[in-house]
C-alpha cells in the first residue's frame, strides 16, 4: 500500500477541515448573539438594538456564505480521496450528514434569506423568530456533523457484515445518543459562542479606541461579556466531560494527551509542562500537579489510567485475536453461498478485534502471514504522535482559562463600572481576537490527530481508507485547494474588514435621533429639547 497517498490525503483533509473551521465557530456564536440583540430590540423597541442586530448580522452573513463554500468542498473529498472509507462505513456516516442537509442546512439557508430581506416585510416578532430559527439551524448543523464525527471516535450502534464487507447500522438511537458525540457537540458549540463573544468584544473595543459608534460598542461589549463569560465557563466544564469520555472510550488518546508512558497508580497526576520524547518513552522536565488527571480521566481518586506501554501490549493481544477473525472472514468469503453457522460463530467470537488485524495490511497483503516483527510494529503504530497532541491540549486549555478571565473582567466593568473601560483593556481585547480560533484549531488537532492510526477508532485504519490514486493526482488537488481557499480567505478578510471599518450605517439617522431624545430624558426636565 502506498503510504505517500495516505499521508497526502490526510494532509489535504486536515488542511481543508482546519480552514473550514475558521468559519464555523463564528457562525455558531454570532447567530446566537444576533438573536439575543434582536430579542432585546423587540422587548424595548429601541432602534439602537435593531442597528446592532443588522450590523453584526451583516458580519454573520459574510462568514456564513464563505463557510458554506468551504464546507461543500470537504464533502467531495470523501468520494475523491477516501472512497474505501465511504464504502465501508457509508451506511452509518452518511445518515447524519444527510439529515444535516435536509433538516438543518435547508432550515438555516432559507431563514438566512428572510433575515436579510424580511425587515420591511415581517413584523418585529416574526422577524425575531426568523433570526432564532437561523441560530437553531446553525446549531443543528453542528449537531449532526458532530454525531457523525463522534461515531468515528466511538463507533456504536453498528456491526460488521462479513457478506457485504461493510459496517451496517443496527441502532440509530445509539448513534444519535453516543456520549462522545453529545459531549463533542456541547463543547464545540460553547467554544463557538466564546469565539463570537471575543470577536464582538474586540471589534467593539476597537470602535471605542477610535471614538466611533460608542453607544453600539458599549452595548455590544455588555452582551458579549455576559454571554461570553457563561460560554467560557461552560467550555471548561464540558471539556472536562469530553476528557472523561476519552478516558472511557479512547484510552490511547488520553494517554497521549498526558504523555503517560507508564500506567500511573491512582490518583494520576496532571503534567502541566514537559517535553515528550517518543523514542525514549519518557517526558523530559515534567512538572506534575497531583490528582488532577485522575479526576479528569476517571472522576475518581482510586482508578488508575493506563499508560502507553500497557496499551500497546493490549493492542498486540487484540491484533493476535483479530487474526482469528480475519481467518474466519476469509473462510466465509471463500465459501460463497455455502456459509455455515459454525463459520459465522467462529467469526463473531473475535470480530470485535478485526480492525486490529487490518493494521497489518500496512505491511503485508495477507495479515495471516505477518511476522512477529510486523505484529509488534503494528501494535506500536497505535501510538499517535504524542508531542503535538500533548502541547495542543495545553494551549487549548490555557487559552480557555484566559477567556474566563477576560470575559469576567469586562463583565464586571460593564455591570458595575458604568460601561467604562481603560484603554489598555480595550487594546488587549483587540489583540486577543485571533486567540479563540487558535484554541479551536488546537482542539481539533487533539481530537483528530489523537485518533490515529484509525479513521474509525478500532474499526478501520486510516491506511486502509484511502482511494487508489496517484501521488500526482493528490498533489494536484492539494494545490487546487490551496489556491481556492487562499482566494476565499482573502475575500473573507477583505469583506469583514471593509464592513467593520464602514461600521453600522443602517438605520443610523433613526438611531441617532432616538439616542438624542433618550439622553435628553435622562438629563431631566431642565435639559434643552432634542433637535
From TrEMBL:
The keyword Heme applies. GO terms for cellular component: cytochrome complex; plasma membrane. It is a multi-pass membrane protein. One of its GO terms (biological process) is aerobic electron transport chain. Pfam families: Cyt_bd_oxida_I. InterPro entries: Cyt-d_ubiquinol_oxidase_su_1 (IPR002585). It comes from the Bacteria. The chain crosses the membrane at residues 20-43, 55-72, 92-117, 129-152, 185-209, 221-239, 389-412, 424-446, 466-491. GO terms for molecular function: electron transfer activity; heme binding; metal ion binding; oxidoreductase activity, acting on diphenols and related substances as donors, oxygen as acceptor. Its main location: membrane. It is found in: Cell inner membrane. Keywords: Cell inner membrane, Cell membrane, Electron transport, Heme, Iron, Membrane, Metal-binding, Transmembrane, Transmembrane helix, Transport. The keyword Cell membrane applies. Belongs to the cytochrome ubiquinol oxidase subunit 1 family. This is Cytochrome ubiquinol oxidase subunit I. It comes from Mangrovicoccus algicola.
